[in-house]
Amino acid sequence: MASQVPPQIFSRRRRIAGLRRARVRQAKRDAARYILDDMVEDVLDRLEFIRMSPTRVLVIGDWTGTLALSLRGGGSDVTEHDVATLDEEHPVESESYDLIVSLCSLDRVNDLPGALLHLRNALAEGGMMIASFLGAGSLVNLRRAMLAAEPDRPAARMHPLVDNQAASALMQRALFKRQVVDSRTLTASFGSLDRLVSDLRDQGLGSALANPPPALDKAAKARAGAAFLDTASDQGRVLEIFEILTLTGWKN
């Protein structure tokens, strides 16, 4: 039986373009990077808690370089990649990593089960994978604003996101042992929809849909902006939630 080709929801070319744009935008003094910073801190906390000192590490997606720098300080041999240099939907060349960390990346691959299996195969026996990305509870106000922008026929403008239950099933399917999926939330306040979109672009989290719809016209943008502010506080700020899913699994 021929294997099924996964639907092409995301464009790797657009992901690479978004990453390059984010790196340019990071030159701004007030560029946002709080999501990746939180993920890096969380990974380091987990490694300290389990007292893991990996020898060979693969880090995917941390364009800040902070995680690799910290791990090298502890004596690890770290290889760094991003979407431009490593396609997670294909086998990883080496198969002997003690630790693989993927940040803000696996939620935008077309074949997530296959990508997880490739990462597991790249681990040495007893190795561990940690993958963090935005989960299904994220960006509630942005989704509401996009629906309000085109009330008659809303276009698919936002990424489909994975929830805890689906992530757990995918980890089992990829044959990880002792797999754990947990989530936490970050909350940030915004004075406008434009500021939220700017923060997402700063962090390489803009749209990477393979077939993006046409840009919103002026009237639709106005409706979206007004809808976004519907839940604003007395100070004119909207609280937006970023749910971070973290998938942890071992190969043994």
Write down the overall mean pLDDT. Answer: 94
In CATH, what is the class? Alpha Beta
Q: How many discrete domains?
A: 1
Rg, nearest Å = 19 Å
Global structural class:
alpha/beta
Give me the count of strands: 6
Q: List segments where confidence is low: pLDDT < 50 over at least 5 consecutive residues.
A: none
CATH topology: Rossmann fold
Q: Estimate the global geometry from the Cα principal axes.
A: globular
Within CATH, the superfamily carries the name Vaccinia Virus protein VP39
The topology string of helices and strands comes to HHEHEEHEHHEHHE
Count of runs of 4 or more consecutive helical residues: 8
Q: What percentage of residues falls in helices of 4 or more residues?
A: 25-40%
Trace the largest sheet across and list its strands.
2-1-3-4-6-5
Q: What's the main sheet like?
A: 6 strands, mixed
C-alpha termini separation: 30 Å
Chart the SSEs and their pairings.
Blueprint: H1 12-25, H2 34-50, E1 56-60, H3 66-73, E2 77-81, E3 97-103, H4 112-121, E4 123-134, H5 140-149, H6 164-173, E5 177-190, H7 193-202, H8 218-228, E6 238-250
Parallel strand pairs: 1-2, 1-3, 3-4
Antiparallel strand pairs: 4-6, 5-6
Helix pairs in contact: 2-3, 5-8
Keywords: Methyltransferase, Transferase
Protein name: Methyltransferase
GO molecular function: methyltransferase activity
